[in-house]
Amino acid sequence: MKNIVVSASRTYDVLIGQGILNDAGALMRERISSGTAVLVTDDNVNALYGDKVENSLKNAGITVHRFVFPSGEQSKCLEVYGRLLNFMADAGLTRSDALVALGGGVAGDLGGFAAATYMRGIKLIQIPTTLIAMTDSSVGGKTAIDLPGGKNLCGSFYQPHLVICDTTAANTLPPDVFRDGCGEVIKYGLLKSPKLLRHLEENGLGFDRDYVIYKCVEMKRDIVCKDELDTGLRQLLNLGHTIGHAFEKLSGFTLSHGSAVAKGIAVMAESCKNAGICSKECCDRTVALIEKFGFDLRGGYDFDSVMSCVLSDKKRSGGNLTWVVLEDYGKSGLKTGSTDEFASFIKSGVLKWK
Ligand code: GLY
User: Fold this and answer.
1) What pLDDT score was predicted for residue 299?
2) Is pLDDT above 80 for 300?
3) 257 C-alpha to center of ligand 1: Å?
4) Ligand 1 atom 2: the closest Cα is on which residue?
5) Which atom of ligand 1 is nearest to the CA of 140?
6) DSSP state of 133
7) Based on the number of CB atoms within 10 Å of its own CB, is 108 exposed (0-12), middle (13-18) or buried (19 or more)?
8) In the structure, which protein residues have their CB atom closer than 6 angstroms to any atom of ligand 1?
9) Mean predicted confidence (pLDDT) in 139-167
10) Where are the beta strands (DSSP E) in the chain?
11) Using an 8 Å Cβ cutoff, are 147 and 153 in contact?
12) pLDDT, averaged across the chain
């Protein structure tokens, strides 16, 4: 088992290893004094790992109350959040107790936000079971639910007290969900790791999961420790996301997040090549890597529709737009400008992958 220590507003361990789900209770007990925990998970993950984690916590002397919600983004809503808070109140959870979020991004975001707000904050343990959650969302403290007006509109920065990442959980993911997570993994390589990119090029979907998850968490740790509140450097994690979010919205959210990000990265690579920010070789290798992972880059959206989505997102952030540019194969940077500047920069990429 490996341990990555994150030192942000809270210092915590991210434990990474094979089969450590079985030891979740003992690993938690060694670090956290809570005697009672609410275990929050969706119905899919519950069927796979609910009993295993609950038994492990109980064997470590922790009283468990299990809250199971329907799987899917639609559960990241006020109604399920309200039910969860009431469930915790009815179970008599106190400020010294804990919430264990077991699952992918929805469990982590919903559970994380409930932990951040119940009694003004209780202990939070993240146990990610999807590749996206293992490599990205369980670390760094972003928690949120969606509102009818948009995704993640209600949330907080709330660092977990512990992350337990059992890499073997990735083995039970349906192939399309696993590939979806690879969009974010490729993103990490492009941000700052030519070595990770080479490993992905050489191994494709058969990459060494322990190595890749460890490298991604290490990179995320470095970024979060420098910019916990997402006011600068952390925005690098949005590579491919500005356009990716527009693709997701235009598809009516039938396009998965990872596929949308993969398309967004291909658009960005083309635009960066045409603007002379990266080389043709960098752009070609980026696209070839995305395709090697089986992402379908054909069938984008028309430029005006994409830009109107970007503009509606921008209204929420106010001011100028910051976007992430690919400078080299394994090196990215930030650029800030007006929406008009972004539109003229990104146009060739959107048209190329239309
Ligand atoms: N997933 C992006 C971030 O944590 O900032």
Assistant:
1) 76
2) no
3) 13
4) 237
5) 4
6) I
7) buried
8) 136-137, 140, 142, 230, 234, 237
9) 96
10) 2-7, 11-17, 36-42, 63-69, 98-103, 123-128, 142-147, 150-157, 162-166, 321-328, 331-337
11) yes
12) 95
- Atom number in ligand 1 closest to CA 184: 1
If one residue of 131, 135, 136, 245 were mutated to test the ligand 1 pocket, choosing by the most ligand atoms within 8 A of its CB, it would be 136
| Spatial separation of the C-alpha atoms in residues 244 and 208, rounded to whole Å | 26
Write the pLDDT tens digit of every residue in 14-61.
999 999 999 999 999 999 999 999 999 999 999 999 999 999 999 999
Query: In this predicted model, what pLDDT tens digit does every residue of 117-142 receive, in sequence order?
Result: 999 999 999 999 999 999 999 999 99
- Distance (Å, whole) CA 313 – CA 344: 18
Sorted by sequence, the CB contacts under 8 Å of residue 238 that are 6+ apart come out as 323, 324
The residue nearest atom 3 of ligand 1, judged by CA position, is: 237
Residue 237 CA: which ligand 1 atom is closest?
A: 2
35 neighbors 25 (Cβ within 8 angstroms): no
Ligand 1 centroid to residue 169 C-alpha, Å: 21
**Cα–Cα distance between 333 and 161 in angstroms, integer?**
30
- Spatial distance between the Cα atoms of 157 and 179, rounded to a whole number of angstroms: 28
pLDDT at 315: 66
Indicate whether 313 pLDDT > 80.
no
Q: How far apart, in whole angstroms, are the C-alpha atoms of residue 51 and residue 246?
A: 39
Closest by CA position to 108, among listed 171, 153, 164, 62: 164
Q: Which atom of ligand 1 is nearest to the CA of 235?
A: 5
For a mutational test of ligand 1's pocket, the pick from 132, 230, 231, i.e. the residue with the most ligand atoms closer than 8 A to its C-beta, is 230
